[in-house]
Amino acid sequence: MDRTSERLTTAETQGLRYAKELEGHVTWLDNITGPALGVLATASGIYTYLGVSSLLDQTGALSFFAALSYSIAVSVGIFVFWTYMMRLLPAVRTMGARIGLLLSMALGSLAIIAMSSWLNAAALAGTAAVEQHLARTVQDYQTSLERAHTIAVSAQGLELDVARVRQSFQDLSEQEATGDLSGLAGRGAVFRVLRQKSDELAGLEAQIATQQPLVNAAFAEGNSILSRMRTLTVEPGPVETRSVAFSEEAVRLAGIITQLRQLSVAPLVSRAAQDLAESVILPELDGRTGEARGNQQSTITSVLGLLAQRADTLRLAAEGVMAMTPPADTTYTPISTADAVILYAANFVPSWAGAIAIDLLPAVLVFMMAITQAAIRSGKSRIGIEDTMTLAELRAAMQAVREVEGALEREPPAAAPSDPPAPDVPEGVPQPPSLAEVKPIGPAYGPASR
């Protein structure tokens, strides 16, 4: 019993209806798939054009046509690529072909991201990314300014240490003037040594004090420049124009930071502390007796020892300030919108997601179409073609059969084969009779003979 005479089971009938229903949906969706791909490709091309335009320095006709041609090429490439995928991937049935097309789709998606998606992201979030770069630069400059000011203020704090040492030598000189130090009242050799170092420290103290107003003024000016830079970061207007003004302010602020670093008096105090112990002019002992001169020498030796200790204290304090971590070297580098989007990609995840989605959304349609075609094939897998023909297809087949039969009837009958040409026979040899001349031997078979 052949398959055409068998009746379809209930499962086969349901599978056939399911496949027919899906085919109807696919037929209707085919009408909008092409226009939808065209709209997505065109939108991607527009944003690609905006991204390319932001990268080109020139604004002439050549730059316009260059950006336009690139965006058109991207749109055409996206449309053709996804059209191929949507037609071929659902149609293949072998696992090797599917894996090959999936790898091709992955490679093509990476190419689309490389040539289009990052430019789309630049068009979507380029201005915000550049503003993010300006804000980050302001933070870096503020950190450097505050660090330079902290070091300068710490160096100014050495003034108290210098004043304390200077006051100690001044007090010792007053004690020597009353005779409480060496036992000799007056302004002798010991008094002059103490006054000498006291005056040196007083000069250093005054020099440090003169730096304080300069430090305060530089810090105030730096904060003022930072305020203008923050305003340029958020104010309306083209970001390119604001970047130029921002760059000028950044140069000025870098100079202020350098000035603050130079205003630090820690190196000065360190050198002064070293000179304090090494450069001592010893006066001639003026005691009238040997015992008095011995007392003066002993007192001067003690003063020199104390001087060395105080000098080490000042030097260590100054070196502590000098050992503080210096401010980082900050330099503002202008950046394009495309580079800014890549540099600060983590801050613009929604923009990147939208830029990639507009290019790779057809991949979802490809997978949907592949799943649907697999379901259609599954519904028809156990049914022959004769059971899946619709009434319209049956009518068309019957009409084709009639046309073939009519064509066969209209063909002329084939001509009877003619006798083959007689071979060349030499003269004098009798010719064989033709087929028409041959008489049948025996009774004739036909209706009469019966």
Number of DSSP-assigned strands: 0
**Which segments are poorly predicted (pLDDT under 50) over 5 or more consecutive residues?**
1-5, 434-450
Helix content: over 70%
What would the average pLDDT be, to the nearest integer? 77
Morphology call = rod-shaped
What is the distance, rounded to the nearest whole angstrom, between the alpha carbons of the first and last residues? 43 Å
How large a portion of the residues is in β-strands, by DSSP E?
under 5%
H/E series? HHHHHHHHHHHH
Taking all Cα atoms into account, the compactness measure Rg is 52 Å
How many helical elements? 12
The tally of domains stands at 2
Q: Main beta sheet: strand number and arrangement?
A: none
SSE class: mainly alpha
Region (Disordered): 405-450
Transmembrane segments: 28-50, 62-85, 97-119
Biased composition (Pro residues): 414-433
Keywords: Membrane, Transmembrane, Transmembrane helix
What is this structure's SSE topology?
Blueprint: H1 10-55, H2 61-88, H3 95-156, H4 158-177, H5 189-234, H6 239-262, H7 266-278, H8 290-322, H9 337-343, H10 349-380, H11 385-388, H12 391-410
Question: What labels describe this entry?
Answer:
450 residues; mainly alpha; 12 helices; 74% helix; disordered N terminus; disordered C terminus
Can I get a quick summary?
The chain is mainly alpha-helical and 450 residues long.
Structure description:
The chain is an all-alpha fold. It has 2 domains: 8-126 and 348-386, no CATH class; 130-335, no CATH class. The chain has helices at 10-55, 61-88, 95-156, 158-177, 189-234, 239-262, 266-278, 290-322, 337-343, 349-380, 385-388, 391-410. The two termini are 43 Å apart.
